[in-house]
Amino acid sequence: MVRVFHIFKFFRKMASRDTTDQQRMEKIVSLCKRRGFIYQSGEIYGGLNGCWDYGPLGSELKKNLKDFWWKRTVRDRDDILGLDGTILTHQEVLKASGHVGGFSDPMVDCKVCKSRYRADAVPDAPCKEKLSLPKGEDKSCELTEPREFNLMFQTQMGASAGADSVAYLRPETAQTIFVQFKNVLDSSRVKLPFGIAQMGKAFRNEINPRNFTFRSREFEQMEIEYFCRPEDGMRLTDEWLEKRLDFYGEIGIPREKLHILDVPDGERAHYSKKTYDIEYEFPFGIQELEGVAYRTDYDLGKHQECSGKPMEYFDEATKEKFIPHVVEPSAGADRTVLALICEAFDEEELTNEKGKTETRTVLRFKPRMAPIKIGVFPLLKNKPDLVAKAKEIQAMLREHTTTFYDETGAIGRRYRRQDEVGTPYCVTIDFDTIGENGPEHDGTVTIRERDSMKQERVKIEDLLGYLLPKLV
Ligand code: GAP
């Protein structure tokens, strides 16, 4: 399976990059590390290239995304079932799918500096060994002819190494679905059209991991294989494209920042009769978030041919037996998390009480995606009544949602810290709350909203009813 090259896309993307976008991306990467969203894997040993660890807030954000995808895809529907397959994959599965023979990218090396690049992504930079050449001399890399580089990670199963013990880390979650198609069909007795959904890790030994988590070697996919009658394949591909665009709207990625690429003939994967790429305007260019591909009966047909096991569907109504076709919306969890962060990141100039201009950094996540939904603060930390009430309110809220208790520093600073990680609401417990300013205020708290910074007083007994509907 030779991966499709979007060379014209590459130039389109490079053209859209400017310094401001670069600076914005640098700020995002820095915030991700500083506030515990994303760290380089193995950083203290110099880092494992193309691998990323999600910190306390990043793991919540990613979980919110995956839970919401699962809800919309599996739990809210009768026609899509879930699967959680293994990462270690039988070599015959990936031989049948074409990955062993052809899941490769063309790779080139510089004969001088020995750098290695994907042939379609050679950077427009001088050769590292020729930097000191005088002005006017050719400083470019001297590249070899492209040769194919298989992107799969291979491993050995069991104690004795040999050809039979070879296994692979899956390069896409899709193949487990195809291989378990018959088991799901027989155990669930579903009828066409129906889908099987899976989310989980996939691994590709990318030649040039780049753009933060965008192109990683270990990443997560959220894939649906939607099986149908052959005559419905094209229509359902168009319908799935629309459904997936709606999904991005629901998580906070506006339609105007998404682009649809109808991948032309000759650029699609060999199994695909139609593919739409859903692309997002990242600060580093317009890049793919998800592919919606009409894979026909290619995969089930190949697995039937190679395993000798039937993959057919029997239609009770028409008495026909046939291999179903499949439409595949295939999204990347890491890329979507990155898009969520890029979309949410904002800096605004504010004038403080002393008349000075300061910059407020805000992650404007949709509340349903925000890692922390409610910050809870006692106005002062050295007032036991305030602290006790704040902890009591936090205990009540955390039964329903994610909360964060903070009693350190001035209240304004605490709001800013929550703005920077995208917490949509903060609840402050003050002297009115505990009735010290007179009985007429007893039992109210201040709710401060992240984007408008507006504050409202709400009774404690109304707090859940006020906040919870705003968080979904
Ligand atoms: N089953 C089809 C398939 O795997 P793909 O276009 O190769 O198709 C689907 O991958 C999605 O998986 C991409 O749109 C992207 O979001 C994500 N993805 C693929 N390679 C990735 C990588 N190296 N790093 C992060 N995400 C990746």
| Parts with pLDDT < 50 across at least 5 consecutive residues | 1-16
Compute the average pLDDT: 93
Write out the CATH superfamily name of the largest domain.
Answer: Bira Bifunctional Protein, Domain 2
Shape: globular
Characterization of this structure:
This protein has 472 residues and is of the alpha+beta class. The protein has 2 domains: 2-96 and 171-341, 2-Layer Sandwich (BirA Bifunctional Protein, domain 2); 372-470, Anticodon-binding domain (Rossmann fold, 3-Layer(aba) Sandwich). Helices cover 31% and strands 28% of the residues. It contains 13 helices and 24 strands. Helix 3 (56-75) crosses helix 10. The longest helix is centred in the N-terminal third of the chain and has 20 residues, at 56-75. Glycyl-adenosine-5'-phosphate is lined by residues 172, 174, 204, 206, 215-216, 219, 221, 223, 288-291, 328, 330-332, 334-335.
Secondary-structure topology with pairs:
Blueprint lengths: L6 H9 L3 H16 L3 E3 L11 E3 L1 H20 L4 E3 L5 E3 H6 L2 H4 L1 E6 L6 E3 L28 E4 L3 E3 L9 E4 L4 H6 L1 H8 L5 E10 L14 E11 L4 H19 L6 E5 L11 E9 L2 E12 L1 H10 L5 E3 L4 E3 L2 E8 H12 E7 L5 E7 L10 E5 L5 H15 L4 E3 L5 H11 L3 E5 L14 E6 L5 E5 L3 H9 L1
The chain binds glycyl-adenosine-5'-phosphate.
